User: Fold these one by one.
Assistant:
Number 1:
Amino acid sequence: MSQINMAYIEQFQACLCPPGNGVFTVNTAKERKAVLHQALFQETELTYVEQIWQQQLPKLADSGNAVILGIASDCGGGILRGANWGPLFLRTHLVEQYGYDQYFDLGDVRVIPHLLHDKYLNTATINNCKKALYGDTDNDYAVSPLTITEDIATSFYDQFPGKGLFGIGGDHSISYALTKPYLQAKKAQGKKVAIIHFDAHTDLLKERLGIDLCFGSWCTHILEDLPAPNHLIQLGIRSSGRPKSHWQDTFGVVQYWAQEINELGAHEIAQQILTQLDSDNVDELYVSFDIDALDQQFASATGTPEPDGMTPQQALTILEVLNARYPITGADMMEIAPFTDSTGKGIENTDTTLQHAGEISAFLLDAINKS
């Protein structure tokens, strides 16, 4: 067995919890959690689930490249909430519909649902939350979802530079905490990377209602860690108060709006992106996928469903073409809100959203595993 620094195991055990348990509840969704735990651990009693999960953590060193991390937080959202249930529901769908055994599941970040990032908290609040999460204040662990995620991702890439995280959210602010350590780790490795960002929205605000780290601003705050701003390539944009030229000229990013993709076709868009990646001498790709990049007929169980979007096949075509040339070494799937019903179809819209999110997630997991 390969060696793993026990300090990292201790950090993972303290700051994470078994898959599906990121939303802290007593009875709510108990049956849904039990289904996932039975599939993953052949056990449903939470005490035993915790023990089995902790015993498996050292095996991370000998696992494949793709490692799953759930972040069940929607505190960084702001329209319709409910994406905190995404990690539980998407995992269950993946277990039921796709091969899951080849991927190591690191678990879920322990989430206090009222918190976002530690920098917004005073010392007294941090100490109170440390007592709630860890039992005492005699530790250096963070207490907010974004800060914990960033710390976990930093430790992960430090210990396992050849592996890649697949993050399941949660609202899109989480991608800040996932991509920042990824970009810094790749820079230290001498790798040039690009982020392929699927979304109906640009997420390029500097702040939203005074908060600088949220679902509408996370992209702005990772630009400094990219080799160049145009290494953020956004696809599916269509809900914006400003034209495409504003975002490209102001931030230097590259965008392909949903209308362009529908008019030119996914394959042509992918070829244009390949031309840029080749010119920029990019080595690897990170894919951040907000499910609302898809048209609302395919993905309505989300906080901000939008019409006139991409089809699942368009997204997969672009990903397949890019991955044929470039390794995808990290990814995330965000903004699945299973209990959110914007169509009046109830469970039907949840199943449809999970079906398409699952297909794309399975592709991304496989791509990371083969990278």
Number 2:
Amino acid sequence: MPIRLIVGLGNPGPEYEQTRHNAGFWLVDNLANSLPGARLQRETRFNALVAKTSIAGQEVWLLEPQTYMNRSGQSVGALARFYKIAPEEVLVVHDELDLMPGVARLKRGGSAGGHNGLKDITAALGTQDYWRLRLGIGHPRSLSLQQQVADFVLHRPRREDQELIEQAIDKSLLVMPQICEGKFEAATMKLHTA
């Protein structure tokens, strides 16, 4: 089944723009910029920035909720219901503490792992059975930092980590056509071995 909705998670506002928690926004921004005519525009009925585009011949919606992270499900649920998009046709792109910077992983379903954005989306969709593209940001402990997790995700990455996160985004963008076509096995192989 192809992907019809790609959701980037983050927090709205300039004070959050460069923070680790906004890695999902960074990928969707890069994706929109790479596609002709895909301009993210505010859509009040979904409380989000939205663009309709075509990837690998598939009609795809791009979505950046403009709620805060822990209310992301409001936008995702509203757009999915309006356009009759099934949970298995949804890809949520988010920051992942359990992966080091530079690593990106694709998976379907699973727990929210403490990620409030995923918790809210799971509640809104009524299932955990949607796709996730996890962008590694590292964990403060694995990066030898003394910060609390809540503080860590709301700060900018170190320059070397930022470069690695950007490389993971670039690798992810290369497999986006396969993901949108529903060729998840091929996309996973390419992404996980790149």
Number 3:
Amino acid sequence: MIQALANKSKEIGLEVNIEKTKVMTNTVEVDINLQGNTLEYVSEYVYLGQIISPKDLMSKEVSRRITNGWKKYWALKEIMKSKVLNTHIKTKTFNTCILPCLTYGAETWSLTSNHREQLVRCQRAMERSMLGFKLKDKIRNSAIRSRSKVVDILKRIDHLKWGWTGHMLRSPIEKWSKRITLWYPRDCARKQGRPIRRWEDEFRQTLGPYWMRVAADRGYWKQLEEAYARRHIETRDII
């Protein structure tokens, strides 16, 4: 398949870059030669800003998002740590520059409770930093949020996922994202033990097994968005 792609590229005047072409597999590695060179196998790689990996994908992606979020935060430290600027400017900077970095690609995430807790802890730490508080001050999270007034990261993630899912399923264009969502394997079974969390599990828990039919109704789907986004926040607050 790779050789056929390379030949097709030559027909239209393009050439495969051997140095940038990598191979990844979840089975046995077999040497693949292209233009006299053997392609390198990798266990993970970054594509369009997201990690692609057959093992522990979400944990790696969440850790990478948190790292990039902190890099962006400290790149804007003149604003976020300023004692002259008011909180409103810091809040707007966080919502428009830092939060999108933390939640980039969240539409395709399948998060566990542990992943969500990591993201919440990261946001809380940034809020304390921008307001000049420390953990030893023992100030309640609700009091910090009432002062920072930043958008809750869990709510932002759920809004993004809900909106993109409805748009993707209603689209008349057959894209890979839609085809993969509708596809189910017929000749294999899930492994024994606790199953890995699937991307669609949250929709099934909220709307049942026929959630895709609900997504076809744009108006009704939009009405349910806020209830879906608040579910994780309310559960977290109760715990």
